[in-house]
Every structure is written in C-alpha cells, then in structure tokens.
C-alpha cells in the first residue's frame, strides 16, 4: 500500500502514529503566570542533544479557552520553563487521566490524585514519585505547519532521578518499566533490555 497524506489513507484510522512507534511519553508539568499548575502527557517527545542536554515535545491540538495551543504551550510561552516527568507503567492510569481536555485552571495533579513537589531550579511543579524529572528552560517555540502545531525545545538544567531506579550507577529502566505510546489507543511497556556493541567500540 502507498498513500500520499494530502490525499488521505482510506483506512478506518490514521496509521501514522502506529508506524512511528514506540514513542516515549513526556509528561509535561507547568505553572501558569496566574499560579495555576498543569500536567499533560505528550507522545511527540524526545531528547535531541547531549551538550547541553536538550529535549523537545510537540503540541498538536488547541483548546477553545487558550489563545496559544494548549495549556502547556501557553504556560511555557509565558514563564519560559517546564518540567518533563518520565512515565512508568505503574502510573499509566493516572497519566491517562491527565490527558483529558480539562478547563483552564483545572489542576490535573489534584484531579488525578498525583503528589506534586516544587522543582529545585525553576518555578514549576513536578511529579513527586516519577522515576526521573527534567527541569527545563525553554529555548524555542517553533510554529509548525498546520493550524495548531507547536514544537517546544528546552535545555535541561536540572535532573531528578528516583534512588530505586539506579543500579550500580546506571539508570535502570527495568526497575520502573517506561510506558510508551503506539498508534490508535495503544500503549506498550519496556520490560526487556539488551545491548549491542558498535562496530568501532
């Protein structure tokens, strides 16, 4: 099968998200200029550079009560900071609760019963028990093609790691099993890890 996205795919559901999988989930926490906290998952998320460490996520929809995409993007535009919380399998249900289209000012931490603590370097909350959290300073917001598509880039200026996720100095994903996003309504979980040596090692 071949199709050009501009012409449609002819399938019951768009296969694009199912093709580009698995995708890590960036559970983005922000605090608005009005002091309201927000927490939302984004599956267009990844690390993009080592030095300095940088991450990105993309917001691809908008809300009627926001002028600039969604709550996360508007908060980041206004404050210049955000936190990326890593999602473990055990948090799948509460993460899903935070994916709802809630009203502006509705605190997803409270709605989902998630404990929050303040970040160390930025004025922003983070998920208290996340396996890891990355405190970020926004570097760019790029308007992408499409009506409501925004790419947010940030430099990681602080890193939190849960102590039980470290094994002999290695951040061990098998200790918490990262949740990953697939296509449609599907998710997966990382439970098995193997290593490959590069040819020039």
UniProtKB/TrEMBL annotation:
Transmembrane segments: none annotated. Pfam families: Flavin_Reduct. Residues 18-173 form the Flavin reductase like domain. One of its GO terms (molecular function) is oxidoreductase activity, acting on the CH-NH group of donors, NAD or NADP as acceptor. It comes from the Bacteria. Gene3D superfamilies: Electron Transport, Fmn-binding Protein, Chain A. PANTHER family: BLR2425 PROTEIN, FLAVIN REDUCTASE LIKE DOMAIN-CONTAINING PROTEIN. This is NADH-FMN oxidoreductase RutF, flavin reductase (DIM6/NTAB) family. It comes from Pseudooceanicola nitratireducens.
């Amino acid at each position: 099968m071949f199709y050009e996205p501009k012409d449609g795919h002819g399938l019951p559901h768009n296969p694009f998200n199912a093709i580009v999988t698995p995708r890590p989930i960036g559970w983005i926490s922000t605090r608005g200029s009005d002091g309201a906290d927000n927490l939302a998952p984004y599956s267009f998320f990844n690390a993009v550079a080592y030095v300095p460490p940088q991450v990105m996520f993309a917001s691809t929809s908008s809300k009627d009560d926001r002028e600039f995409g969604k709550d996360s993007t508007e908060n980041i535009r206004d404050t210049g900071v955000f936190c990326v919380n890593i999602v473990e399998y055990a948090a799948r249900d509460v993460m899903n609760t935070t994916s709802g289209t809630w009203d502006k000012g509705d605190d997803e931490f409270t709605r989902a019963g998630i404990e929050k603590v303040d970040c160390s370097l930025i004025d922003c909350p983070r998920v208290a028990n996340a396996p890891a959290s990355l405190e970020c300073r926004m570097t760019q917001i790029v308007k992408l093609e499409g009506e409501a598509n925004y790419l947010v880039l940030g430099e990681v200026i602080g890193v939190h790691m849960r102590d039980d996720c470290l094994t002999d100095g290695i951040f061990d994903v098998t200790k918490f099993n990262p949740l990953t996003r697939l296509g449609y309504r599907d998710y997966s979980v990382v439970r098995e890890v193997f290593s490959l040596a590069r040819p020039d090692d």
